[in-house]
Automatic annotation (TrEMBL):
Pathway: Purine metabolism; purine nucleoside salvage. It holds the Pfam family PNP_UDP_1. The keyword Transmembrane helix does not apply. Its EC number is 2.4.2.1. Belongs to the PNP/MTAP phosphorylase family. Keywords: Glycosyltransferase, Transferase. Residues 22-267 form the Nucleoside phosphorylase domain. One of its GO terms (molecular function) is purine-nucleoside phosphorylase activity. This is Purine nucleoside phosphorylase. NCBIfam families: PNPH, PNPH-PUNA-XAPA, PRK08202.1. It comes from Psychroflexus torquis (strain ATCC 700755 / CIP 106069 / ACAM 623).
Length: 270
C-alpha cells in the first residue's frame, strides 16, 4: 500500500494540492459546502491514480482543494461506501491520502436515521462515539503495521477539543446539535423494525452506512477527527414509515445550510 499511496500523493501534489490543513468528507446530499469554498483545483476521482474505481452512480465524486474560513482544505465531494462493493481498505484510502498531503484535522458528515426517540429528523447530531456493525475492519490487512499500530486505541475516537468547539459553535449560531452514538451498518437495505429496536437497545442514537471505517483509519493515523450526522428519518420501530429516498434527500437538503454554517464556524477555530 505504501507505494500506491506515494504515487497518488505525488500526483495530487503535482496538481497543486499543497499543504492542506483540514480534510472534509461530505456525505450523501450534503455537497453544498463546496459552494462556500474558494476552489483552486478539483479533480474527479476517476483521474486520480490508485483511487478506487468510481461506479456509474458515483461519477460525480471529486477531490477539491481550496480555501474555506481562511484555511486550506481538501474536500471529498462524495465518498465510497462498503455497500457499493469496495473493500474497507478502498473506502478509507482517501483518508490516508489526505493525511499524507498534510491535513491536521478531519471533519466528516453523513446522513443517518434517528434511533433515539427524542431526536427529530432534520436536526444535526455530533457523534460522540460509535458502534461498528459492518462486520470488518479497514485495519485487517497484512501490511497494516507498516502504516501505523495494529492495535489502535479507540477509547476516545472523536476529538474532544473539536467536539467541544462544535458544541460552542452550535450555541453561538443557535443551531440544535444533539450528541450521540452512531452505529454503522453495511446496507444498502434499510433496517427492519426488529433491527431498529436492537440498535436502540445496544445504545445507538443514530444509524447509517458510512463514517466508521474512515474514523477508524483516522485513529490509526493519529489524525484528530469529528463527525456530524444529519438525521434524515425517525426510526421508531412502533411507528415505522416505509423508507422514501426522495424524502430523505429533501430532509438532508433542508438541514444542509446549518451543517455548512457549523463547519464554516468550526474551521475558523482550528
Ligand atoms: N438506516 C441506515 N442508514 C440510513 C438511514 C437509516 O434509517 N437513514 C439514512 N441513512
Amino acid at each position: 500500500m505504501k507505494d500506491r499511496l506515494e504515487k497518488t500523493v505525488n500526483y495530487l501534489k503535482n496538481k497543486g494540492f499543497e499543504s492542506p490543513q483540514v480534510g472534509i468528507i461530505l456525505g450523501t446530499g450534503l455537497g453544498k459546502l463546496v459552494e462556500h469554498i474558494d476552489i483552486e483545483i478539483e479533480i474527479s476521482y476517476n483521474h486520480i491514480p490508485h483511487f478506487p474505481t468510481a461506479t456509474v452512480e458515483f461519477h460525480q465524486g471529486k477531490f477539491i482543494y481550496g480555501t474555506l474560513s481562511g484555511k486550506k482544505v481538501v474536500v471529498m465531494q462524495g465518498r465510497f461506501h462498503f455497500y457499493e462493493g469496495y473493500s474497507l481498505q478502498d473506502i478509507t484510502y482517501p483518508v490516508r491520502i489526505m493525511k499524507e498531503l498534510g491535513i491536521e484535522k478531519l471533519l466528516v458528515s453523513n446522513a443517518a436515521g434517528a434511533i433515539n426517540k427524542t431526536f427529530k429528523k432534520g436536526e444535526l447530531m455530533l457523534i460522540d462515539d460509535h458502534i461498528n456493525l459492518q462486520g470488518g475492519s479497514p485495519l485487517a490487512f497484512k501490511g497494516v503495521s507498516k502504516l501505523g499500530e495494529r492495535f489502535v486505541d479507540m477509547s476516545a475516537p472523536y476529538d474532544k477539543d473539536m467536539n467541544t468547539s462544535f458544541l460552542k459553535a452550535a450555541k453561538t449560531l443557535g443551531i440544535t446539535l444533539y450528541e450521540g452514538v452512531y452505529a454503522s451498518v453495511v446496507g444498502p437495505q434499510l433496517e427492519t423494525r426488529a433491527e431498529y429496536r436492537y440498535l436502540g437497545l445496544i445504545g445507538a442514537d443514530a444509524v447509517g452506512m458510512s463514517t466508521v471505517p474512515e474514523v477508524i483509519v483516522a485513529n490509526h493515523l493519529k489524525l484528530p477527527v469529528s463527525a456530524i450526522s444529519v438525521l434524515t428519518d425517525e426510526c421508531d420501530p412502533d411507528h415505522l414509515q416505509p423508507f422514501n429516498v426522495e424524502e430523505i434527500i429533501a430532509t438532508a437538503t433542508r438541514a444542509e445550510p446549518r451543517l455548512v454554517k457549523l463547519f464554516g464556524e468550526l474551521i475558523k477555530t482550528l
